[in-house]
Amino acid sequence: MLVLTVISLVYIHLQVQIVELAYAGKQKTVTVQALRDDHNNLTYQICLLQSAYHLGDTLLAEDSGMLFLDNDHIVRLASQDTGVDEYFASVKTPLKRQNLFARLFSLKAQAEAGPIR
User: Fold this and answer.
1) 115 or 12: whose pLDDT is higher?
2) How confident is the model at residue 48 (pLDDT cuts 50, 70, 90)?
3) Segment 67-77 mean pLDDT
4) Residue 86 to residue 115: CA distance in whole angstroms
């Protein structure tokens, strides 16, 4: 009878621990979901604060003296011939040599900058 009582008490104790762990797991699930909601909310607020509209609105609201450009505040510069095109046309770039293995297994195309003509 004593052995049966001890086994019953151990079984009841294990069942109580299972129920407690189930409640703890449910509480952790609720906590994780709340943290995810907070994370999403904070991410949205950070994106909102970094938007160009918000930054412009903030700068104009703070009496910073800054204005958006209009037709009266545009500076136009006259272009002048500086001879830069002739300089770049006269400069020869050395050709890069590749070995046969690198040339066969090259996956990306190469582009070179040059003057606009």
Assistant:
1) 12
2) confident
3) 66
4) 9
Distance in angstroms (rounded) separating the CA atoms of residues 5 and 11: 10
Phi-psi region of 83 (alpha: psi -120 to 50; beta: other; left: phi over 0): left
The pair of three-digit structure tokens given for residue 51, joined into one six-digit string: 């938007």
This prediction has a pTM of 0.40
| Both tokens assigned to 62 | 């703070």
Q: How do the domains of the chain map onto residue ranges?
A: 1-62
Please give the torsion angle defined by the CA atoms of residues 82, 84, 85 and 87, in that order, rounded to the nearest 10 degrees.
Answer: 130
98 within 8 A of 106, measured Cβ to Cβ: yes
In total, the chain counts a number of residues equal to: 117
| Strand (E) or helix (H) holding 21 | helix 2-49
